[in-house]
Inverse folding.
């Protein structure tokens, strides 16, 4: 499974640097000089990082073969991805990566099947998307158990949530 670690934004300057919307906790590792970045769409890459720098809280990358504003503009919107197998598991038992949660069967504390986690949204508060239209805040009070090995997630929803 591919995980998005960044999205190329607008060009910066005239020499081909691009801005990157960072979507990883470890940008220094993921975007280190010499790194090869897989892209979505695949036809845009792979991209080799020549240099990296921060400018006013914005990550800027210089990519091999991208030497003009026009060539940088062609990459706008390209997703930078990694294989989920390349992500080390967290030491925190209450921290999960999205790809670990997507696909888990959701059951209530009474054993009733609710559906399957189809997405995880990050809008101020993490939300589990179950099926197409059920949104469950991903907090311990509502999601007391995540059993990755068993492939299920237990929810304790308040009246009316489901």
């Amino acid at each position: 499974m591919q995980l998005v670690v960044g999205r190329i934004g607008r060009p910066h300057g005239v020499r081909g640097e691009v801005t990157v919307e960072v979507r990883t906790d470890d940008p220094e590792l993921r975007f280190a000089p010499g790194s090869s970045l897989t892209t979505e769409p695949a036809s845009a890459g792979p991209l080799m990082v020549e240099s990296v720098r921060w400018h006013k809280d914005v990550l800027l990358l210089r990519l091999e073969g991208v030497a003009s504003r026009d060539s940088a503009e062609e990459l706008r919107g390209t997703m930078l991805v990694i294989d989920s197998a390349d992500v080390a598991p967290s030491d925190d038992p209450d921290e999960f990566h999205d790809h670990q949660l997507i696909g888990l069967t959701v059951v209530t504390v009474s054993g009733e099947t609710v559906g399957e986690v189809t997405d995880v949204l990050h809008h101020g508060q993490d939300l589990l998307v179950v099926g197409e239209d059920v949104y469950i805040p991903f907090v311990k009070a509502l999601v007391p158990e995540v059993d990755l090995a068993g492939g299920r997630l237990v929810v304790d929803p308040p009246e009316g949530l489901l």
Summary: The first strand starts at residue 2 and ends at 12.
